[in-house]
Each structure stands twice: as structure tokens, then as C-alpha cells.
Amino acid sequence: MYFVRTAGERDLEKVRALLVESFHATYDGLHGKAKVDELIAHLFTPAALKARLVRRDAEFLVADDGRTIGGMGYAAMSQALTKTVMLHLLYVSPALQRQGIGRDLFAELETCFPDAEIMRLEVEPQNAAAIAFYQVHGFSEVGRNENNAPGQSGIPSLILEKPLEGH
């Protein structure tokens, strides 16, 4: 049984391992191992994870069974968009998918931002499983980001949004 809780600094090594495993399982077939390694090296350094952990207007959650971290979620208020929370990361260990861990993490993240009216995310257009998950949870496509500015991945993404309850 996995319980959703706020992540702590002691979780970051396990979270990084989960993200490395999940990124390879999700994206190697789409972009190749070398590109995925490059993304991981940039996105999931210990310093980058710690910065997410200590950010004030954000929530960093893990699904924990007392021995392992089975999933993680990270969302933060948008700096650019009013009353919008950005869902940046929601990953479940490949071996534990389809057991409700992602649903539980997502349900908790939805409640963490009382001032937000919209939740927004970007998803790889070829990641059919993630797109289906988000559609089931009330998201719809509102645009596309080519991610081709300097310093960006060059990998296009779909932009999905969902109105949050109570607004």
C-alpha cells in the first residue's frame, strides 16, 4: 500500500532513481537513450531536485510504502500565468503503473493550490498512455509548445489544461 506524503530531502536519491527509470522506460523508444540521458543529466541533478523541494509555491509529493518510493509528483504555481498551477512531473515506477498511485498523487496535487483556477501541463505528443491518463482526469488540449528556443529540448509538447474544482 502506497501513501502519498510530502517529499523530504532524504527522498531525493530514491526520487532521482525513479525518474531515471521512468524517463528511460517512457522516452528511450521515442528519442533514443542518448537524448534521454542528456535530459536526465540536465533536469534531475541533485541540486535541481533540491531546488524543487524547497520552492515555496510548490508541492513535491511521493508515494511511499515504507520501503520504496513508487511514484512522485511535482507542481508549482506558474510565474507567467495568473491563477495557474503547472504540473511539472508525475511519474510512477514502470513496474507499479495502473495500480492507482498516479491517480492518488494527482488527486493530492489538485488540492494543494487553493488560489489556482487552472492546472496546466505539457506532455510528449507520442506519450499516449500519459495523454489518456490526463484526459480521464479532466484535461483537454489547449495548444502546443515546440520547445525550440535556446536551452530547450527541441522536443515538441502538447499543452493540456484542466479547470480546478471550486472555481
TrEMBL record:
<dbReference type="GO" id="GO:0016747">
    <property type="term" value="F:acyltransferase activity, transferring groups other than amino-acyl groups"/>
</dbReference>
<dbReference type="InterPro" id="IPR050832">
    <property type="entry name" value="Bact_Acetyltransf"/>
</dbReference>
<keyword id="KW-0808">Transferase</keyword>
<keyword id="KW-0012">Acyltransferase</keyword>
<feature type="domain" description="N-acetyltransferase">
    <location>
        <begin position="2"/>
        <end position="165"/>
    </location>
</feature>
<dbReference type="InterPro" id="IPR000182">
    <property type="entry name" value="GNAT_dom"/>
</dbReference>
<dbReference type="InterPro" id="IPR016181">
    <property type="entry name" value="Acyl_CoA_acyltransferase"/>
</dbReference>
<protein>
    <submittedName>
        <fullName>GNAT superfamily N-acetyltransferase</fullName>
    </submittedName>
</protein>
<dbReference type="Pfam" id="PF13673">
    <property type="entry name" value="Acetyltransf_10"/>
</dbReference>
